[in-house]
Amino acid sequence: MEIPINHWYKLFSPRVVILVTTIDDEGRINAAPYSFCGPLSINPPMLYISARSSQDTYKNIKKTGDFVVNVVSEDFAQKAVSCEKKYPYGVNELEKVGLHWEDSKKVKSPKVTEAKIHFECEFVKEVETGDHILIIGEIVAVDADVVKENYSPDFTKLKTILQSSGEDFFLVGKEIKLKRE
User: Fold this and answer.
1) What dotted CATH number matches 12-171?
2) Among 11, 22, 33, 80, which lies 20 to 30 A Cα-Cα from 163?
3) 151's torsion region: left (phi>0), alpha (psi -120 to 50) or beta?
């Protein structure tokens, strides 16, 4: 079946769902869910999120220079996705949806208390990529509550949420081992 080109991203899935938290220059909290995200480098540790220039997340990162990537799990998935609602600039989405926050270790932006994995990031650079802007951050602190002895996520406890597109979300399923030769 031939797929219309503007639907290509739906096939590049599922993607991990994250909730990005930022603050503006007055210290007001913003939170928004994303699934256009991923690792870029191990050393130095870097990741990316892909946002639109009109989004509060992008504006805040440019103003304050940092952000936190909070990995979304089943236990707070609906609240995290509800942060996408269009609230006026400066409104704390976490408060509106009933999520909690706490201070980060190394950045000004807070982390989401309910998230079991947090990546604290300092803004490095942006790359324009069509209708989105690739935001590159260097990870300056990481904490996780659900890892195995080798620091890999324990998905049986984490229950990470993945997105295909729109309202199509999935839970991470069964673990399989494949050899890397």
Assistant:
1) 2.30.110.10
2) 22
3) left
| Beta bridge partner(s), residue 15 | 163
Q: What is the pTM of this model?
A: 0.93
Q: Three-class SS of residue 32?
A: strand
Which of 15-24, 44-53, 130-139, 143-152 comes out lowest in average pLDDT?
A: 143-152
Query: Can you give the residue ranges of every domain in the chain?
Result: 12-171
Name the β-bridge partners of 144.
117
User: Token pair of 122, please?
Assistant: 């300092």
136, 128 contact by CB (below 8 A) = no
In the predicted model, is pLDDT for residue 157 greater than 90? no
Helix (H) or strand (E) holding 10: helix 8-11
Distance of CA 130 to the CA centre of its chain: 20
